[in-house]
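FAQ: What does a ligand-bound record look like?

Like this one, built around iron/sulfur cluster:
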Amino acid sequence: MIRYYPHVQITLAEVSGKTVILIHGLTGCMFRCYKCINYDEIILKRHPDALSIDEVITIIQQHENIIEMIVFSGGEFLQAPIEHLILDLKKVRNASIKPIVIYTTGYYGEKMRMLWEKGMVDGYHVDLKLPYHLLTIQDEDIVTQTLGRSLSQIEIDQMIETIEWVVKTDKGFNQIRSVKYPFLHPSAFLECQVWIDLLNKKYHKDTPYEIHRFVNLNELS
Ligand code: SF4
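The answer part, i.e. the structure of the complex:
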């Protein structure tokens, strides 16, 4: 059973121009990114008052008239077992007509495809942490600094494939974005932009690529 963060937010700040309901799954994360703002609160902290999916659905239904999109985030929401993801997303589908978007790192490509094929999700917003398509063995330090651990070549290849699949299957709800980590050279983001542009051209899509400002925890306190 997936447990949900008790503070469900209705916000305009997540997806430009849209009122979304933002729901965090307490599903942990396989990374520990540089100064992750969610780490202590969403990943480490125990939440005895966590919500069930039925309680989350009640909140969705209370706001059905004002929300335009339902967004699931984490941690890494897709770290939950696939059968639990299917069960919960199916319940949400049955309870609301609003599009469902999942924020993800793109690490669990196989689960992304399964949920997509089952019609459980309308879009993925993928946090492209690094220009994976250009990484070499010399970049191991920067990978570790960014993600808190290294990546095998198999993991990198799978994420490259997943990004391509996200652009290829976009039906208007997908997005790729990067966080402007202060230690990354600006060329990293230009390279990501070029890559996504090429994929869009290849698949005749218009998946947006956004660069988000790095937010320091001190700014939020
Ligand atoms: S993937 Fe996201 S939630 Fe996980 S550590 Fe990185 S920034 Fe935090």
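Follow-up question: can I read anything off the structure? Yes, for example: The chain has a mean pLDDT of 95.
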